[in-house]
Specification:
five-stranded mixed beta sheet; 24-stranded antiparallel β-barrel; mainly beta; Immunoglobulin-like; 8 helices; Ubiquitin-like (UB roll); disordered N terminus; single chain
């Protein structure tokens, strides 16, 4: 029986109806909901431009007939919601996520019974359902593996629905009955290699300084270039630097082609690349490599990206280098900064962070970076095999050929064994190790034996490494890494061996002896009630040298009501050889910020106090905020302990075609202007589009002939003149929802669907195509040839036989027309007639227009 309640905002009696899904009237009600909603209270809505139509308010005439005419609902009962017995290729969605495509048998047990999909225990497993939790031994019997079962009869609150119009089988299962291990896993049959496309990711920075009467200009352009053809991806990473008085310098970090190998769950790479660094230190080489890709697995670890923190005293530029190559460069405003989107080229190799202040000062720090302990599931193998010629950024060094292998195998549920072998002419290295997951974290221990032969000398030695890591799943943000490595005097890595081939033996010193790295980020209290603290520290000593390198970075942050506060410390120390000068640098920063208003968009005021080890102090105050969701600004004013005043201003904006940054700074003896621009240029079959910087995999969203349509998840991203939008990031081998922002679409545009799911392969450029109907919104008042109104249930079709609308109880049908003149077919009360229409000049101020549509009487 229907249930409901009365009342609408207009004061008319209306009824909100709830029906049981198994009652025939439910399907009638569901099919006619949208056309009736569009027609309800049409006279009142038609007088208000762009009026919003209520979604769940219906005139009670719907149930009473609404007119003297009978409702013609036979066509509705024969609509697309019913399905005939047979076999259908369907897309299966489990708890809203695309699970796969397969052929499903739809069967009818007896005459008059409901047609049901044939779902078997084998399918249940593929859907991620844990059969053991069903506590039904019959489902586990091998003879019943392909027998049909009704899922809603096995699991309370489970639901199976079929959308025959889209051939979607929609399955809903309570999470308690799902396997935990398959969360996020997508059937490889759905992995999309994408379309043919070429792109350029660019990051341009320009800085113009004037200090003590001298002017200088420097420019840098970072490029990530790509071309996709079928399953192959061509990639290049390069950097161009230009400075006055200096020669233009171009360097290429990586150039390679890559494709995935689904059968091996691995990636094949050919060209100038880096070896995997889980066991041996990562080196740059020219050759080939096959590496397992955990992203293809369910619940895989997605890798580790370091977080770089620091404090800029002025509008500055931050450059990050690894192995001598610039891998990241960005302008930052005065104050604390945090960079979380740094992706190093190899799994090992310290990061050199350079902060270039507005007055030209350069502060260089090093941040330790190394991989996490290698842990894999029981019975699974992670591997890497590489071979080629060693490549250095020093062209004078030799380039010996080598082969490197690394394996990790899950010995048990909580134990992993590792093996590595590296072989080159006059060099060999063997690694053995073991890792174990414990209740307090993951620990691994490995030892490497090396042998290096160079002219007049042979070196042999060992290096022992201990790694510890713990990720706190409760918050998914806290991360801890501790690493200790001790090497005997005779130990040589492959990079050491290559350097020794080009070095005078009498100058060999400074070999790493012991190293300790520690990185901690921890929330204090539930939901960071007591704030959060981070610590990053590194200490390294050397053989045949008294020098030592140390660095520490620590900080604490919290808030009180609307006041945010934090304190941070950075310290670097380089102890030189006897007779040489040592150097150290320390800085303490204390920061406060609070909103200057009561709304969420109010600007924030800030106070920052900086002090270094020499006693120099700098106090800065400022205001920062947002002009809109895509544009932010910052103004800073400061005074140092020498009495010098300074000021900085910056503005940044994200647009559909990229990001732009502009900053200006001025102090007692300098002026600085910096400009930054980053984005992408993508060429594809549909044309050329400019967009924000793209990630490894990204999406082209196409809404044909419809520019200006936004993407909900990406501020500022809209379709261009060719109807394409660049959605800059997508997770490979995972479901990615791409949803259009329909809030600003006019009444003359109608989308068949506004959300799609895509599953890109690594490096793919996938296409999400949306169908849009563009026309003129008209509500027809349907009349018979004798002039009388038609009743509820009349169907209106175009000359090609496509059903366009169904009349409401008052004989009205809302439609989107592409032409101002034409002919419609109306079926009602068992008969069909033709009805011509000729629309008057359009009134663009109305949400829709009312026009009579009368049968011609033939």
């Amino acid at each position: 029986m229907p249930k409901g309640c009365l009342l609408t905002s207009s004061g008319q009696s209306s009824l909100i109806v709830t029906l049981e899904t198994r009652q025939p009237l439910y399907w009638v009600f569901l099919l006619v909901t949208l056309p009736i909603v569009a027609s309800a209270d049409s006279e009142r809505l038609n007088t208000v431009p762009q009026a919003k139509i209520p979604l769940l308010a219906f005139n009670t005439g719907f149930l009473q007939g609404g007119s003297a005419q009978p409702a013609d609902v036979l066509a509705l009962l024969q609509g697309a919601s019913n399905v005939l017995p047979g076999n259908y290729r369907v897309e299966i969605f489990v708890n809203g996520d695309l699970n796969g495509r397969r052929d499903i048998d739809f069967k009818q047990e007896s005459a008059g019974a409901e047609v049901q999909p044939c779902l078997t225990p084998v399918m249940f497993k593929d859907f991620g359902i844990d059969l053991l939790k069903l506590k039904n031994p019959e489902l586990l019997a091998p003879e019943n593996a392909n027998r049909c079962y009704q899922l809603d009869a096995l699991i309370e609150q489970a639901e199976v629905r079929f959308d025959s119009a889209r051939l979607h089988l929609l399955i809903s299962v309570p999470q308690a009955f799902m396997q935990a291990g398959v969360r996020g896993y997508v059937d490889p049959a759905l992995w999309d290699e994408g379309v043919t496309a070429a792109f350029i990711n660019y990051q341009f920075n320009m800085r113009r300084n004037s200090s003590a009467g001298a002017k200088s200009t420097s420019k840098s352009l970072g490029l990530q270039n790509g071309f996709n053809l079928g399953p192959w991806r061509l990639r290049n990473e390069s950097n161009l630097t230009m400075s006055e008085g200096q020669p233009t310098k171009f360097s290429s970090n990586r150039s390679f082609v890559q494709r995935d190998i689904s059968a091996l769950k691995a990636q094949l790479s050919l060209g100038e690349i880096y070896t995997n660094g889980n066991i041996f230190d990562s080196v740059r080489f020219r050759g080939a490599q096959v590496t397992s890709d955990d992203a293809m697995l369910a619940d895989s670890e997605r890798g580790y990206a370091p977080i770089i923190r620091g404090v800029a005293e002025t509008n500055a530029t931050v450059e990050v280098r690894q192995n001598g190559y610039v891998i990241f460069s960005t302008p930052v405003s005065a104050g604390a900064f945090e960079l979380t989107d740094i992706y190093p080229s190899g799994s090992n190799g310290d990061l050199e962070v350079t902060v270039i202040e507005a007055d030209g000062r350069r502060r260089v720090t090093r941040q330790a970076f190394s991989s996490l302990p290698v842990m894999v599931r029981k019975g699974r193998m992670a591997f890497s095999v590489a071979g080629g010629q060693y490549q250095s950024n020093d062209s004078s060094q030799q380039s010996p050929s080598f082969v490197s292998t690394a394996l990790a195998y899950g010995l048990s549920d909580d134990m992993t064994g590792t093996f590595g072998l590296q072989v080159a002419e006059k060099f060999q290295a063997l690694n053995l190790g073991i890792g174990r997951n414990t209740p307090i974290g993951a620990v691994s221990v490995d030892i490497t034996q090396s042998s290096s032969r160079i002219p007049q000398q042979t070196d042999k030695g060992q290096s022992v490494r201990v790694l510890y890591a713990k990720t706190f799943a409760q918050t998914s943000t806290d991360f801890t890494l501790a690493a200790y490595r001790y090497s005997t005097e005779g130990y040589r890595s492959f990079s050491d061996h290559v350097q020794d081939l080009n070095r005078d033996l009498t100058m060999r010193m400074g070999r790493s002896r012991a190293r300790l790295d520690l990185t901690v980020q921890q929330s204090l209290g539930e939901k960071q009630k007591y704030g959060s603290v981070y610590l990053s520290a590194s200490d390294q000593s050397y053989w045949n040298s008294n020098s030592r390198s140390q660095s520490v970075s620590a900080g604490y942050g919290n808030y009180w009501k609307s006041l945010n506060y934090s304190v941070s410390l950075t310290h670097t120390r380089n102890i030189a050889e006897r007779g040489s000068a040592s150097s150290s640098d320390s800085q303490v920063a204390l920061s406060f910020s609070l909103p200057l208003g009561s709304t969420s968009h109010s600007p924030r005021g800030s106070l920052r106090i900086l002090r270094d080890r020499e006693g120099n102090q700098n106090i800065q105050t400022g205001v920062n905020g947002y002009l809109d969701s895509a544009t932010n600004y910052s103004f800073q004013g400061g005074r140092d302990s020498q009495g010098g005043n300074s000021g900085n201003a910056s503005i940044s904006t994200d647009t559909a075609v990229g990001r732009m940054d502009l900053g200006y700074g001025q102090g007692p003896d300098y002026k600085s202007l910096n400009f930054g621009a980053s984005g992408s240029v993508v060429a594809h079959a549909g044309g050329i589009n400019l967009g924000q910087q793209v990630g490894e995999s990204f999406v082209l969203a196409e809404v044909p002939d419809t520019p200006g349509v936004g993407i909900i998840s990406n501020a500022g991203v809209t379709t261009g003149r060719n109807g394409f939008a660049i959605v800059p990031n997508a997770q490979p081998y995972r479901l990615n929802w791409v949803s259009l922002d329909t809030g600003n679409l006019g009444a003359d545009i109608e989308l068949e669907q506004a959300t799609q799911q895509v599953v890109p392969r690594r490096g793919a450029v996938v296409l999400a195509r949306y169908q849009a109907q563009i026309g003129r919104r008209v509500q027809f008042i349907l009349r018979q040839a004798n002039g009388e109104k038609m009743g509820f249930g009349a169907t209106v079709e175009d000359p090609e036989g496509k059903q366009s609308a169904i009349s409401d109880p008052y004989g009205k049908a809302l439609m989107l027309l592409k032409q101002d003149k034409g002919l419609m077919n109306i079926t009602w009360d068992g008969s069909t007639c033709q009805a011509p229409y000729d629309l008057p000049e359009r009134n663009k101020e109305l949400n829709y227009e009312q026009v009579e549509l009368k049968c011609n009487g033939n």
